[in-house]
């Protein structure tokens, strides 16, 4: 998909599609209940934690030393399990 961004018209189409997707998500969240908002935040937190573990060697090393895996972090309250870096 990265190649598509190098083709002017096609790249614009994909960028607009991504912006529209994020806009639609934000509109859904605008009317969300507090529990729906919290679930969305926790879902995004899990995505960020998984990405960091997979792509940042320092985080992976420190979390492995502490015996923490991305699956151990499910909610904001679980962030206290992570070692300070």
Concise structural overview:
This protein is mostly helical and 85 residues long.
Task: Set down the secondary structure blueprint.
Layout (H helix, E strand, L loop, with lengths): L7 H23 L3 H22 L1 H9 L20
Look at the structure and give the mean pLDDT.
Answer: 86
Could you estimate the helical fraction of the residues in percent? 55-70%
Taking pLDDT < 50 over at least 5 consecutive residues as the criterion, the unreliable ranges are none
Beta-strand residue percentage:
under 5%
Number of strands: 0
What is the tally of helical segments? Answer: 3
Q: What's the order of the H and E elements?
A: HHH
In whole angstroms, the N-to-C terminal distance is 34 Å
Biggest sheet record: none
Structural class: mainly alpha
Please state the overall shape, judged from the principal axes of the Cα atoms.
Answer: flat
Provide the gyration radius in Å: 17 Å
């Amino acid at each position: 998909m990265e190649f598509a961004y190098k083709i002017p018209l096609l790249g614009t189409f994909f960028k607009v599609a991504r912006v529209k997707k994020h806009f639609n998500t934000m509109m859904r969240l605008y009317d969300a209940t507090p529990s729906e908002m919290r679930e969305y935040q926790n879902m995004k937190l899990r995505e960020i934690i998984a990405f960091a573990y997979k792509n940042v060697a320092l985080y992976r090393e420190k979390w492995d030393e502490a015996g923490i895996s991305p699956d151990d972090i499910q909610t904001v309250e679980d962030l206290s399990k992570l070692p300070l870096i």
